[in-house]
């Protein structure tokens, strides 16, 4: 075959493959929605038409944390300096719910100014690519990672440290990073102990790992709630959704539910309300 024949054949093959390939997805409208989900595969942002969130008024027992995060977020949305935030502590106490509720509060105050972008834990290594997509957009974004932690030989925390510190380019002015975790230092105790036992200088090795949480300027701790706070959560949900039930009956059933679960938290309160509404054939769609 001549060079011209080979070139023509390759061109025909390339044209055929291009016709068979699916069309590229349209670029997301980064001003049209309040929330997006980042998909590392394909480096694309998927809009979220309806965010799964809880109203701020239903979050009980975390008033100080709510006020602090709201103030930090409001400053960020108005162009003032703000910190990356780490919400850590007890399971089911409203860490991720608070992030979403705060974003909704500020978005209502300043329409169009602030959006939430969720990145999954396993996609953290693609965070620099996400920053590239958002950098320069005339809008402010909270990049949110729920249940962030690192185990075993996972070294992706190093890329997160570089992003939080800003690297050579610096963290974009229109981006702040919020994360939730059950661990204050994001790393398992075994991971830290293994590093200490195998390192030439154990102190420096541990500092390297623990310093990840130091990149968050704002730490908010969440702790297990007491009986009164738990009941306030339950009653707040019942009133919000119009579930008519006597106080003594509600308290008895909610206490029994928490005993069977072995815990009291906002999540347990919500699970009880779902069970109560289901037994009474009531919908929880109305907000």
Q: How would you characterize the overall build of this protein?
A:
- Strands 2-1-4-5-6-3-7 form a seven-stranded mixed β-sheet.
- Helix 4 links the parallel strand 4 and strand 5 (140-145).
- Helix 8 (227-240) packs across helix 10.
- The termini are far apart.
- The longest helix has 18 residues, at 3-20.
- The model has no long low-confidence stretch (mean pLDDT 85).
- It has ten helices and seven strands.
- It is globular, with a radius of gyration of 24 Å.
- 29% of the residues are buried.
- It folds into two domains: 35-222, Rossmann fold, CATH 3.40.50.300; 227-279.
- With 287 residues, the protein is an alpha/beta fold.
Summarize this entry quickly.
This protein has 287 residues and is an alpha/beta fold. It is 46% helix and 13% strand. It starts with a helix and ends in an 8-residue tail after the last helix.
């Amino acid at each position: 075959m001549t060079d011209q024949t080979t070139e023509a054949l390759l061109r025909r093959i390339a044209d055929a493959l291009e016709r068979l390939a699916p069309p590229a997805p349209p670029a997301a409208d980064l001003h049209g929605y309040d929330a997006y989900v980042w998909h590392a595969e394909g480096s694309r942002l998927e809009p979220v038409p309806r965010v799964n969130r809880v109203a701020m008024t239903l979050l009980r027992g975390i008033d100080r944390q709510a006020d602090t995060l709201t103030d930090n977020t409001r400053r960020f949305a108005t162009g003032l300096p703000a910190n990356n935030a780490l919400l850590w502590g007890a399971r089911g106490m409203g860490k991720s719910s608070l992030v979403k509720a705060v974003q909704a509060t500020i978005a209502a105050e300043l329409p169009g100014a602030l959006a939430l972008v969720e990145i999954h834990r396993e996609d953290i290594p693609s965070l620099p690519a996400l920053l590239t997509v958002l950098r320069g957009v005339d809008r402010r974004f909270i990049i949110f990672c729920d249940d962030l932690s690192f185990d075993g030989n996972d070294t992706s925390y190093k890329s997160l440290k570089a992003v939080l510190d800003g690297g050579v380019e610096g963290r974009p002015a229109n981006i702040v990073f919020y994360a939730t975790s059950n661990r204050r230092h994001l790393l398992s105790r075994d991971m830290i102990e293994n590093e200490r036992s195998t390192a030439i200088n154990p102190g420096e090795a541990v500092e390297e790992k623990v310093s990840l949480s130091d990149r968050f300027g704002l730490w908010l701790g969440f702790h297990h709630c007491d009986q009164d706070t738990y009941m306030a959560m339950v009653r707040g949900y019942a009133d919000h959704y119009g579930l008519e039930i006597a106080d003594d009956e509600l308290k008895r059933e909610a206490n029994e539910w928490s005993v069977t679960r072995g815990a009291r938290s906002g999540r347990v309160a919500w699970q009880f309300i779902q069970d109560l509404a289901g037994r009474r054939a009531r919908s929880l769609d109305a907000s």
